[in-house]
Amino acid sequence: MSSVMHSPSGLNFELPEELVLLKRTIREFVEKELWPIASQVEETDEIPQATIDAMRSLGLFGLPFAEQYGGAGVGELGYCVALEELGRASAAFSNLLGAHCSIGAMALHLDGGPELKARFMPALCAGEKLACFALSEPGAGSDAANIATRAVLDGDGYVLNGVKHFITSGDIADYATVFAVTDPARGARGGITAFWVDLNGPGVTRGPKDRKMGLFGSHTCELIFRDARVPADHVIGSVGAGFKTAMKTLDMGRLSLAAGCVGSAQFMLEKSVAYAKERVQFGQPIARQQAVQFMLADMATEIFAARNMVYHTAWKADRGERFSMEAAMVKRYCSDMAIHVVDRALQIHGGSGFMKETGIERAYRDARILAIYEGTNEIQRLIIAEELLRG
Ligand SMILES: Cc1cc2nc3c(=O)[nH]c(=O)nc-3n(C[C@H](O)[C@H](O)[C@H](O)COP(=O)(O)OP(=O)(O)OC[C@H]3O[C@@H](n4cnc5c(N)ncnc54)[C@H](O)[C@@H]3O)c2cc1C
After folding, report:
1. What are the pLDDT digits (tens) for 302-358?
2. pTM score, whole prediction
3. Residue 32, class by beta-carbon neighbours within 10 Å (0-12 exposed, 13-18 middle, 19+ buried)?
4. What's the CATH number of domain 2-125, 1.10.150.110, 1.10.3210.10, 1.10.540.10, 3.50.50.60?
């Protein structure tokens, strides 16, 4: 994408100089700081504090946010370029960043009032405080409009009761964007409100971390609200507009998740090309076998398509255009692509790919969630079809 491709129409696929620099900086950080500890993170199920501090020093936690709050203001395209590079490392790192930037603090950044943002965004941009996004509940996953967490107005604030589950970084976040029902009769159409909630306040408890198939180093847990008081001025946006905030935030989340898919798949392709050239069977490198070449060719083609979808959608987002359908398309396509590519990478590596040492079996397990969270791929298809059929 960095090569110049000007057409007479002015179409330009060149990344701006500052994003080329950003890409290079993050690539170096991934190779120097993140890759060397990827196995350790997997085994201990923890990202060392020193690494979180290094991510903070690099300004990663403020990447997509406005400079007036201390963010880097790199826009959606810049954020996607950064996440593409981070996708080359263990998924634990992009999940930590994604829960905070893409959805947790993003809801506040998109729809929060000026006072609320002025109070909380600077510490979030600096990474001194971490945020998470609490929508899902035991009874409301795909059917997010069916949440049962209640918020009842009581004097100068709201009282929250309910349980959120599978919340990424719920164990370490300081704040959460929490979606709760304020008007049961209206449901998603004006009856759900987004709240900015202090997770260290009274009435909030965190469940034990969930035992998962992968994504070690990134944790999910329940967030339990029992008469948790939230000040009225901690409403994000307006009362009743929470479902819209959730959907708008998830558009951003889906796009950046897709960018991570491109990076992880690209890394798998590079590893596979190198291995295919080096591994000798039947007296020649397996790269000479057309069956292996076809796998590599398909991987590269799918990555090429995915990257273009991500960049195009990010460009649209940065122009302030609506991109809900494209966000659903890129999330659906790029997650399936990443799952397919890592499966092919494992196949090319043969038995070695199944062993811990190559890091491919970890990427294989980590990829599987991509088709599930931030809205399953079936739900993405429903969103695309709804947009198409609306006319
Ligand atoms: C590791 C992890 C991290 C997560 N992080 C967060 C987080 O930070 N914040 C948060 O709020 N949530 C989070 N989630 C929750 C995640 O968003 C949900 O798991 C996801 O939306 C699916 O909901 P569900 O698990 O209840 O599945 P269900 O909704 O029960 O779906 C089960 C199956 O039925 C299908 N299905 C359901 N309805 C339909 C339909 N109408 N048409 C076709 N198929 C349908 C689904 O596609 C799926 O295949 C996380 C989950 C995991 C596993």
Report:
1. 999 999 999 999 999 999 999 999 999 999 999 999 999 999 999 999 999 999 999
2. 0.96
3. exposed
4. 1.10.540.10
194 in Cβ contact with 231 (< 8 Å): no
User: Is the confidence at residue 2, as pLDDT, over 70?
Assistant: no
**Residue whose token pair is 């050239």:** 277
Q: 15 C-alpha to center of ligand 1: Å?
A: 34
Task: Find the farthest-apart pair of alpha carbons in the chain and give their distance in angstroms, rounded.
Answer: 80
CATH for the 244-390 domain, from 3.30.365.10, 1.20.140.10, 2.40.50.140, 3.30.70.1560: 1.20.140.10
In this structure, which amino acid lies at residue 143?
Answer: D
Type of residue found at 3: S
Separation of CA 207 and ligand 1 centre (Å): 19
Q: Kindly report, residue by residue over 149-183, the tens digit of the pLDDT.
A: 999 999 999 999 999 999 999 999 999 999 999 99
- 305's tokens: 């398509």
The answer to whether the beta carbons of residues 167 and 137 sit under 8 Å apart is no
Distance of CA 93 to the CA centre of its chain: 10
* Whole-angstrom Cα Rg for the chain: 21
pLDDT of residue 92: 96
Q: 337 in helix, strand or coil?
A: helix
CB 191 within 8 A of CB 183: yes
Residues with CB under 6 A from ligand 1: 99, 132-136, 141-142, 166-168, 212, 215, 220, 369, 372-373, 375-376, 378-379, 382
Rounded Cα distance, 56 and 60, in Å: 6
CA distance 248 to 69: 21
| C-alpha closest to that of 148 among 159, 137, 133, 134 | 137
**Residue 7 phi, psi (nearest 5):** -110, 165
Q: Which atom of ligand 1 is nearest to the CA of 170?
A: 8
The structure tokens listed for 256 are 């950046």
Share of the chain above pLDDT 70, in %: 98
Amino acid at the residue 91? A
CATH architecture of the domain covering 131-240: Beta Barrel (2.40)
